Amino acid sequence: MDAPQILLTNDDGIDSVGFRALYEGLSTVADVVAVAPADDQSAVGRTVSETVEFTDHEYGYAVHGTPVDCVIAGLGSICPDVDLVVSGCNKGGNLGAYVLGRSGTVSAAVEAAFFGVPAISVSMYIEGGEDWASLATEPADFATARRATKHLVEHATTSGVFEAADYLNVNVPFVDNAGVSGSIPMRVTQPSMRYEMGAERNGDREIALKDGIWELMRGDSVDDPVGTDRRAVADGEISVSPLTAPHSTQQHDALDEIVAAYSSNAKTEADGE
Binding of a divalent metal cation: at which residues (predicted)? Predict the structure, then answer.
């Protein structure tokens, strides 16, 4: 079988160490073309531009835009015949349902799904506190993420996984010296529904918005149930959440009645005018 064609993108920028790690790893099992932001575009969600400039890069193309811009430009013009989009590896976790729409890494995978192309978003959670920036600075530090992504690319794309899921959101716990560490288990999960956003007033004209989840992720304080992405990563496991892109709902009898009543009342009011 021919090697799969992969569009590789991210939100940390095309020259980030996590991106390099995945590019080098995936290039051993696939034909990879990079279509990634020229600079850091973290937490831009599904922001899209009207036009973007792009330049040649040793890995492919550097786009002066967002991760979603990269996917649209890539699948719509630069490399429309790829088999898979991979987004990452992000330095920092993308865990929990409330994060999915904010993350540029995940948003790239969502955008690919609307093109009908399966996707995998990959992030690495680092429990670092104030020294977070000093960790995971070399491609070898992303060895576990690279290994897990290669495994999913090689197997999920040929086993029918994407007949049910539009994309996989993968979170990998950071392990020091991951290049020589032992195997880390992988678990199928669902995004945690835990939500800890809050606001605190600072003086008269400023309000600080705080996400309390990340403080809870440090140490042994995570109490999310087994089966959630956050629980898996806290337990030292690789989390793989199979997800669908369109926001979906179910038929709702009460809402049907409300809508029908509005239509009936509107006709009655119009007849009375």
Answer: 11-12, 42, 90
